[in-house]
Each structure stands twice: as structure tokens, then as C-alpha cells.
Specification:
The chain is built from nine helices and six strands. A six-stranded mixed beta sheet has the order 3-2-4-1-5-6. With 224 residues, it is an alpha/beta fold.
């Protein structure tokens, strides 16, 4: 069942969902597969989370959902804090599991297994290494998380997760081919907006990281 189908008989006001990727980590800088490995935010990632928090401080969010992994949880805590809220942890928002590739660098794998890496880079969900998580398993748990989010009574929602899971969320919420969603960028601490309507879910904007690039003139940045 798709995100759109979930809402076809639901006559609530539309939901505004901000999808957030966590701030940077050392393994992001080193281009290593993080997956389920619980790598914390580095100094830059903490600064990114603070800048995102400042941008969203005036947006009247109702709830923040997050992956339990530290890099996402700390980002979510920064976002929720100005609103006096605590993030709601959903295990199903954890990053996809890369099995034997966890901790490996893309550069190293390109040298040792160039064919496998070319296949993975072209079609990540369907060319995972042996003993890693399959697309079917990823899709199943992301649908569970989306079910919790869409059936809540909250109209302004923030969901903090990971690069792979954000692409899975795009696929589930917007009925997009899982092979196509990797063409949508998801930079660290960027925000993407999905509006959930009665008959159709709509991507309003994506990969907005203006808060990380704007000057310090104090001018407020729009959110939605």
C-alpha cells in the first residue's frame, strides 16, 4: 500500500512532513559506509544541527520522529529543543544495513571490487552486498514508519533519518520507483518537504540546505 493510498479516505487537513538527513560525521567525511554502525556527529555535524535548529525554531512543528542512531538522534534533539519537545524514536527509521561493507570506504571498495561498486553506485537498493539488508526488508519497515507518521494527528512533522532511508521514504510517500529516488540529492542536514493530501502526496521542495550556506546577517530563512 502506498503513502497516497493510505490517505485516500482520510479527510483530515493535509500534513506537512519535513524530511531531514542527519548532520555530518567523520565517516561521511571519509566516505565510509555507516549503515547501522552508531557513528556520532562530528564538530561540523553539531554545528549543522544547530543551524538547522535555528532555522526551524519559528516553524510550529508538532512532533519530531527520528532514527535511534546517534547521528540522527542528536540532530533531532537539536531540532526539537526550541519547541520544548523530545523526539519520538522509531526503530524503523534506522539506516539500511550494509553488512560486510559497514566501515569500508568507497575508495577502498572501488579498488578491491570495482565491478560490485559500479553496480551498487548505479542501483544501490538492488545491488547490496551479501548478508546486507534487502530492498524488500527496507521497504517493509519504512512503510511501517510511514504508517505511524501518517496516522498520527500531527499536521507539522519532522522526520530525521539517513541518506538511504530518505530515498526509501521518497519512494514510499511519493510512489516513486526505488531505482529513481537515488537521483534525488539528500545532503547532510538538508530538509525536503512532502505534503500529504487526501488524494495525493506532493514533493514541495528537496535538499534545501540554505541554512548551512547563508550569511550571518540575522535575516530569518523561510521554511515552508
Amino acid at each position: 500500500m502506498s503513502g497516497n493510498e493510505w490517505n485516500r479516505n482520510d479527510h483530515r487537513a493535509s500534513q506537512k512532513i519535513l524530511l531531514v538527513r542527519h548532520g555530518r560525521t567523520d565517516w561521511n567525511d571519509e566516505r565510509r559506509f555507516q549503515g547501522r554502525t552508531d557513528i556520532p556527529l562530528n564538530e561540523e555535524g553539531l554545528l549543522q544541527a544547530r543551524k538547522l535548529s535555528e532555522r526551524l525554531a519559528s516553524w510550529p512543528l508538532d512532533v519530531v520522529y527520528t532514527s535511534p542512531l546517534l547521528r540522527a538522534l542528536r540532530t533531532a534533539e537539536a531540532v526539537a529543543s526550541p519547541h520544548g519537545k523530545k523526539p519520538v524514536v522509531l526503530e524503523d527509521l534506522s539506516e539500511m544495513y550494509f553488512g560486510p561493507w559497514e566501515g569500508e570506504s568507497i575508495a577502498g571498495l572501488r579498488k578491491r571490487s570495482p565491478g560490485l561498486m559500479r553496480s551498487w553506485l548505479k542501483d544501490p537498493f538492488f545491488h547490496m552486498p551479501e548478508n546486507a539488508e534487502t530492498w524488500e526488508d527496507i521497504q517493509t519497515r519504512v512503510r511501517r514508519a510511514v504508517g505511524v507518521i501518517l496516522h498520527s494527528a500531527r499536521e507539522r512533522v519532522v522526520v530525521v533519518s539517513h541518506g538511504g532511508i530518505m530515498r526509501a521514504l521518497f519512494s514510499v510517500l511519493l510512489d516513486l520507483d526505488p531505482r529513481a529516488v537515488w537521483n534525488i540529492s539528500a545532503s547532510n542536514c538538508s530538509i525536503s518537504g512532502v505534503e500529504v493530501r487526501e488524494h495525493q502526496n506532493v514533493l514541495k521542495f528537496s535538499n534545501d540546505d540554505l541554512h548551512l550556506r547563508a550569511g550571518n546577517d540575522g535575516a530569518p530563512l523561510p521554511v515552508w
